[in-house]
Amino acid sequence: MTIAETPRFVRADGPDKVTGSGRYTADMQLAGMLAAKFKFAEVAHARIVRLDISAARQIPGVLAVLTDDDVPDVRYSAGLADRTLFARDVVRYEGEVVAAVAATTKEAAQAAVDAIVVEYEPLPIVDDLEAATADGAVLVHPEWESYSASPGIPRDGNVASHSSVVRGDVVRGLSEADIVVTSRYVADGSHAAPIEPRAVVAQWEGDKVTIWSSTQVPFAARDGVCHTLGLPTNRVRVIVPHMGGGFGGKCGFHYEAHVAALARAARRPVKLVFTRREEFIAPDRRRESMIVDLTTGVKSDGTIVARRGHALLDNGAYTADSSFFPQLAVMHLAGPYVIPNVEIGAELVYTNHQPSGSVRAPTAPQATWARESHTDEVAAALGMDPVEFRLLNAVETGTVGPSGQTYDEIGLTDCIRKAVAASETAGPLADNEAVGVAVGWWPSIPAPSGAYVKIDGDGAGQIVTGAQECGTGSVMTLRQLAADELGMDPEEFQIVHQDTAVAPYDTGATGSQTLFNNGRAVIAAAGQIAEQLRELAADRLEASSADIVLSDGAAHVAGSPDRNVSIAKLARTASYCELLIGHGSGPPPSAPEISGATCAGDAGMAAWVAPQFSCHAARIRIDRDTGVVRVIRVDAVHDSGTIINPTGALGQVEGGVVMGIGQAISEGTVYGTDGRQRNPALLEYKLQTAADAPEIHTQFVEIFTPDAGPRGAKGIAEAPNVPTAAAIANAVTKLIGRPVSHLPMTPERVWEATR
Amino acid sequence: MTHEFELQVNGIAHPVDVDPSRSLLSVIRDEIGLTGTKEGCDDCECGACMVLLDGQPVNSCSYLAAQAEGRSVTTIEGIMNGDELAEIQKDMLDEGGVQCGFCTPGMIISATALFARNPDPTKDEIQIGLSGNLCRCTGYGRILEAMKHTAANRD
Question: Which of residues 190-209 of A touch B (CB under 8 A)?
Answer without folding.
Answer: 193-197
